[in-house]
Design a protein that fits this description.
A seven-stranded mixed β-sheet has the order 1-3-2-4-5-6-7. It is 38% helix and 15% strand. By secondary structure, the chain is α/β, with parallel strands linked by helices. It is globular and about 45 Å long. The chain is built from eight helices and seven strands.
Length: 252
Amino acid sequence: MTTVQLTGRTRARLRVYCLPPSGCGPEYYAPWTRCAPAELDICSFSLPGRGQRSGEPSQTDPRRLAADIAEAIHRCHDPRPFAVYGHSVGALMAYLATCSLRHSKNRTPHLLALSALPAPHLGLYAAALPARLAAGLAGLTDLIGPISEDLIHTPMAAALCTPILADLLLLMHYRHSREEAPLDLPLALYGGTHDPITDTSSLTAWSELVTTPVTPRLFPGAHTYPADHTHALVHQLTHDLADACTTDHVCE
């Protein structure tokens, strides 16, 4: 597992580890580097089978992948307050990596921020995702946005869809453990007002997996809303992480 430094701000007060959505690599968060304030250091992960590592076999075991992500965070040996953020399938990996950090490293982020994915204990992944797969490109566009007609009829379409399908398998392979204790940490939830994948109630249900429930912050748009509201989302995340750190008296 490779940690990718996107901003490289070693003197920034706060760090955010970002898990990409379906089929994407760390380049998904490149726009964040242009609007993140100086106090925020943005990094991500190069995952097998995604992005620049698309030629490698994808990891479709969610708990194994989460353990690798947790180990990569631990190996950074970074003492700064940090958040773990994930969008779409990245939200599940952010949650599982946080659980892995708690179990294996006895540490957790100062904020867990999750975007545009139903809470995993609802059991919706295995129930809802096969219909998306059966819908073909129409189902995938709900996840990644419109695909141009020129691209659909080229080999690039297959290259684009393969890692997405692997990530959908990762979601469908997940089974929630009822023995997992609630996380005792601040939670932030983000979503789109017209997301066909994640409605407000299924997003809000993440609060049942932590000790302090929260209300989601919704942005205009569908499942791919971060692309149109990057600045507002990063601003909100920066604010939420600063609030979480102030509560813990670690950012002063």
